[in-house]
């Protein structure tokens, strides 16, 4: 696929992002055919939901957006590699959002993560491509002994994930706001190739040694390149997709991660996946022979996105996920059954837009007055980010063995500030982004009606 078009000579970040997401999807479909089945089933389910529910099905995004939506996942080994990733994704208008520490989850995976995605609502509507990016924490002694850490660091220092020519094009795209067609083609070709599964043989003993710590550590530090770990489509009915995938003979993990279907608005995120597949790989044996075998590393994740939760909504979500008893009944008892109830209880983010005709009566003093009096309408904000518990659940369901963590040893102080230094740019707070979007919409309503005071919550 080429990006050249008789109607376009220059590609801005949005066009580059859209083209890259499409190329990455085509690459992953060739490498993992079951992913193509997943995409096909998601498309079928979405079409059926749209036919059954009509406009309501597009409450959290147009069907065009939902159909095109993907989030990828990659893994790198060092701060320098993570900074290079930030450079490549920066050319696509994707910025680091959120800090996730999977070392402290039930899966005990020795990585910290951020997600690269657009942060502007219009850019998200054009193409909401996201890449969840994890970095190995080699200095965490709970996972890696000093000797293993030294050898792992030396191994990682010898590899180059992204050619200098790709990084130079990415820098230019960021500085100049895009690329001409020929340079865009070169950038997209090199960026896609950088995430392809390498045919280079895997050192059997080295990979096995890292696997005894964590299969994720082996996947990152046991090979000389990076690759896509999963590429996730979005579906409007994840329970139906789960059933249809099983009917096609695809082995799924045991459950859908996240809250149950309970009858009220979907909050945050629900996820599931097909199980990691045995993929053919070449190995270098201790005696130098090259043999053929398989590895189970990559899996097919799919997600259903709901309302972006406020901090109060997130607290409710986290509490209900672990509350004993019937999960659906717990949600029905504790959570509002309508979007308006979620808004009034400040559990989810919504944007406001003015109605067409100015209502009669005194100016509203609260957001509830705005809505009840016909001054504004509310639209839910879709959740654009990730959840450590769900990510860990997916990881744990697909790991070939449990991670080894020695809690008597010292961890590594890798936090948000440290990661910002590693990528040499600020990492956005998801809540701040959602809050700013909500506040801006309220200010726009106030300006539209020239209200004397800003309504309160």
From TrEMBL:
The protein's matches in InterPro entries, at most eight in alphabetical order, are given as:
HGLS, YdcJ_bac-like
Iron is among the record's keywords: yes
Q: Which cofactor does it need?
A: Fe(2+)
**Domain of life assignment:** Bacteria
E.C. code: 1.13.11.93
Query: Which controlled-vocabulary keywords does the entry list?
Result: Dioxygenase, Iron, Oxidoreductase
The record's family statement is: Belongs to the 2-oxoadipate dioxygenase/decarboxylase family.
What name does UniProt use for this protein? Answer: 2-oxoadipate dioxygenase/decarboxylase
Its source organism is Rhodococcoides kroppenstedtii
């Amino acid at each position: 696929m080429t990006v050249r078009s008789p109607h376009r000579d220059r590609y801005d970040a949005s066009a580059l992002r859209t083209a890259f997401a499409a190329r990455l999807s085509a690459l992953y479909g060739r490498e993992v055919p079951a992913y193509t089945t997943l995409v096909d089933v998601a498309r079928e389910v979405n079409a059926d939901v749209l036919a059954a529910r009509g406009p309501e099905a597009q409450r959290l995004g147009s069907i065009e957006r939902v159909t095109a939506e993907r989030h990828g996942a990659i893994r790198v080994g060092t701060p320098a590699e993570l900074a290079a990733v930030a450079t490549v994704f920066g050319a696509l208008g994707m910025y680091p959002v959120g800090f996730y520490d999977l070392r402290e989850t039930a899966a005990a995976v020795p990585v910290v993560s951020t997600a690269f995605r657009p942060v502007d609502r219009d850019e998200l509507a054009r193409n909401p491509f996201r890449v969840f990016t994890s970095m190995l924490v080699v200095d965490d002694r709970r996972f890696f002994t000093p000797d293993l850490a030294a050898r792992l660091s030396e191994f990682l220092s010898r590899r180059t994930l992204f050619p200098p020519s790709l990084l130079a094009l990415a820098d230019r795209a960021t500085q100049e706001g895009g690329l001409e067609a020929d340079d865009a083609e070169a950038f997209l070709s090199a960026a896609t190739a950088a995430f392809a599964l390498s045919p280079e043989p895997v050192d059997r003993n080295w990979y096995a040694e890292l696997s005894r710590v964590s299969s994720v550590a082996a996947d990152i530090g046991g090979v000389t390149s990076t690759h896509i770990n999963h590429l996730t489509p979005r579906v409007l009915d994840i329970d139906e997709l789960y059933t249809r995938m099983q009917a096609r003979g695809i082995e799924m993990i045991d459950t859908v991660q996240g809250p149950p279907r309970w009858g009220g608005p979907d909050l945050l995120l629900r996820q599931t996946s097909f199980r990691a597949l045995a993929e053919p790989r070449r190995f270098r044996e201790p005696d130098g022979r090259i043999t053929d075998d398989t590895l189970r590393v990559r899996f097919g994740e799919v997600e259903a996105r709901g309302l972006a939760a406020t901090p109060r909504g997130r607290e409710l979500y986290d509490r209900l996920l672990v509350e004993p008893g019937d999960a659906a009944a717990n949600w029905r008892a504790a959570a509002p059954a309508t979007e308006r109830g979620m808004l009034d209880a400040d559990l989810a983010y919504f944007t406001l837009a003015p109605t067409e005709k100015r209502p009669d009566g005194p100016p509203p003093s609260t957001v509830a007055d705005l809505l009840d009096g016909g001054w504004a309408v509310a639209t839910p904000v879709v959740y654009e980010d990730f959840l450590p518990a769900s990510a860990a659940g997916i990881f744990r369901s697909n790991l070939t063995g449990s991670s080894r963590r020695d809690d008597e040893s010292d961890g590594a102080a890798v936090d948000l500030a440290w990661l910002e230094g590693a990528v040499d740019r600020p990492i956005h707070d998801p809540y701040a982004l959602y809050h700013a979007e909500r506040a801006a919409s309220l200010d726009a309503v106030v300006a539209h009606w020239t209200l004397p005071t800003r309504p309160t919550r």
